[in-house]
Structure formats: C-alpha cells, structure tokens
Amino acid sequence: MVLRSADNNRVRELTLDRPEALNAFNEELYDATARALRAAADDPDVAVVLLTGNGRAFSAGTDLNEMAQRVAGTDFTPGEFGFLGLLDALVEFPKPFVCAVNGLGLGLGATILGFADLAFMSATARLKCPFTSLGVAPEAASSYLFPRLVGRQNAAWMLMSAQWISAEQALDMGLVFAVAEPEELLPTARSHAEQLAAQPISSLVAVKKTMTEHLRPEIAAARGRENACFVDLMGGPANAEALAAFAEGRAADFTNLPPGW
C-alpha cells in the first residue's frame, strides 16, 4: 500500500506512504492518489481532504528511477491515471483540499500547493522546484498558478533557480497559510480542516466553484504549454545528463552541453 486513508469528523486524511522513496510519485502512487481524490469527491460524507506524507518527506516528486525507465523505453508500464490523471483529479476536486507539508517537498511535492485551498508547513520542511536542474520544464500548471499565488518574481525564482525554499520563505511569499513546529503540524492542519468540514458541504463546494472554476481554462492552457516543453526537453542533452548524474550519485554538469542547451 502506497497511500493510507483515514476519516475523522468529515475530513479524509490521505498519507503518501512510500517513505523509503521519500514518497516520490511512481505510477502506483499517481493512480492511488487520483483514485482517492475522485472517491472523496463522490463521497457525501467527506467534506475536506487533507494530504500529508509519512516519514521525513512530504513528497520528492516524480520517481526519477521510473522517469529514467520511461525515457529509455524499458521496463516502464503506464498506470491507469498517471501524472496527468492525478492533475485532472486535482483540478476537478470540488471540495476543500488541504496540504500539510511535513518534510521535503520537491517537484510535485511543491507544485501541488498550487491546488491547495489551505497549506500548512512544518518549520523544518523545505521545498524545491528542481526542473532546470533536471533539464526539463515546469509541471502541474505551476507556470500559471505560482505567479498568481506568490507573484511573478517569487515564482520565477522558485521555477528557475532549483534552490531550496524554507518554510519561512514559503510563508512570506504566500505559498502556505501557516507554519508550525513539526509536532504541531498535523494537529494544526487537522483543526483547520475540521473547522471547514463543520460547514455545509454544499456551501463549501459553492465557494470553491466560484473561486476556481474560471481558472480551469488557464490551467488547461498552461498544462498544454508545459507538456509540450517537457516533451521537447525530456531525453535531450540536459535531461540525459541530469538523469545520468542521479543514477551515478554525482552532481550534474551542464557546462559541456551543445550550444543552446
């Protein structure tokens, strides 16, 4: 089992549970999370979903070992939903979606916050969007959602620099709603989720619809642009060097790429 689920006071708590892989999303976890969101959306007894991670990471993003298999065309089996199906489930999720970032958040472990209605972060957690260090493009409509959420320059730094963002930085730029000490993170997130869940589900859904439905065409357009760039870059010289460096346990060296790369 790669995803745990528990219900309490109309809050469904989903816990990413691949701690040995820092909760990185492989096809199995993409599918499990997408299914869980769709099930929660359809369940009349669930008012709010709270997502967190087990272990020292929230999520390390896409499983790079599986990405390398996909690029090489060997030993890779697509899931039922995959990355794109999980994004569809996030875009379409009609109820409040709360994130509790308990530890490291890389790639999708950071960009998923663009879909959060409330996000909480441990004081010791850190975030990184490692796209340029992997030789690829942004994902999850972050090129649209992040500038809207944190401003153009904060978004540019996060998406271009591949540098770590501290909890205090995330709070200052408005990426998260509150920062808590590690032992207080889940109690704080649960308390807020339960306060939301005490309200009528019909009203919660109406509020979210009025806030987000008009964003869907822009999110779709951003995803299209990102996917096109990602396809162009994946397997290219920069991405190949990044994946080779990861497999060999060394830092990537982009200084000898062909001109323009």
Report what the structure shows:
It is built from eleven helices and ten strands. The protein has 261 residues and is α/β, with parallel strands linked by helices. Strand 2 (11-16), helix 1 and strand 3 form a beta-alpha-beta unit. It has one domain (3-202): 2-enoyl-CoA Hydratase, Chain A, domain 1 (Alpha-Beta Complex), CATH 3.90.226.10. The protein starts with a strand and ends in a 13-residue tail after the last helix. The strands form two sheets. It has a six-stranded mixed sheet, sandwiched between helices. A four-stranded mixed sheet has the order 4-6-8-9. The protein is 47% helix and 16% strand. It has helices at 27-42, 64-72, 82-92, 108-111, 142-150, 152-161, 167-172, 182-197, 201-212, 216-233, 237-248, and strands at residues 3-8, 11-16, 48-53, 57-59, 97-101, 104-106, 118-122, 126-128, 165-166, 178-180. It comes from Nocardia callitridis. It is found in: Peroxisome.
